[in-house]
Amino acid sequence: MTAEPLHTTSWPVPPQDGYTVDDLLSLPDLPPHTELIDGSLVFVSPQRSFHCLVNYLLTHGLRRTVPDDLRVRQEMTVVIDKRQGPEPDVSVIRADAVVGLSETHYHVKDVVLAVETVSPDSEARDRKRKPQLYAEAGIPHFWIVECGPDERPVVHVFELDQVTRAYGLTGIHHDRLKLSVPFTIDIDLTSVGKRSA
């Protein structure tokens, strides 16, 4: 009787000090939308319809009113430092940071707004760790989107306090997201919900 060979994985063994952004951007065959949080690679589960529809709604809504000196991006890595490369669901960046269509990431200094749509598998990261990272890195605006009881998006809007380097809640929006900062924004949130199914 012969023993079956042990199954070996093709996943790379983590370095002793953790992964770096260079690893995130260069390792072959990583799953799409892999993030780097605290030196660990984070793999995401398949998206739910709510997540997909909300991100599309916000991206489209922001692009309608974004000023010429800013751009809207969806699911792009933001390099904070050598051990942090999160991927906001939606971000608004400075237009001069855009250099071409082959870019895979942006630097945190160019991010004006980061948006996270909460998923069941990423609640702690989306609600706690990522906002902390974004605030400490100086991203001036942050939104977190939750699925309300009627399956419509609820958008929690935060602004950075430059003294404490922490976010302060400036509003909770249910049916309509109407803001004057970081630019004029008016998005009907009611198009996502049970009738979208």
Task: Write structural notes for this entry.
The structure is a single chain. The strands form four sheets. A six-stranded mixed β-sheet has the order 3-5-7-8-9-10. A two-stranded antiparallel ribbon has the order 1-2. The chain is α+β, with helices and mostly antiparallel strands and 197 residues long. The radius of gyration is 18 Å and the shape is globular. It is 19% helix and 31% strand. Helix 3 (123-137) links the parallel strand 7 (111-117) and strand 8 (141-147).
| Element-by-element helix/strand order | HEEHEEEEEHEEEEE
Radius of gyration equals 18 Å
Q: Stretches where pLDDT falls below 50 for ≥5 residues?
A: none
Main sheet makeup: 6 strands, mixed
Helix % is: 10-25%
Alpha-beta content class: alpha+beta
- Net shape: globular
- How much strand content do the residues show? 25-35%
- What's the overall average pLDDT, rounded? 92
In brief:
With 197 residues, the chain is of the alpha+beta class. Helices cover 19% and strands 31% of the residues.
Protein topology:
Layout: H1 21-26, E1 35-37, E2 40-42, H2 49-65, E3 70-74, E4 77-79, E5 90-94, E6 105-107, E7 111-117, H3 123-137, E8 141-147, E9 153-161, E10 166-173, E11 176-179, E12 185-188
Parallel strand pairs: 4-6, 7-8
Antiparallel strand pairs: 1-2, 3-5, 5-7, 8-9, 9-10, 11-12
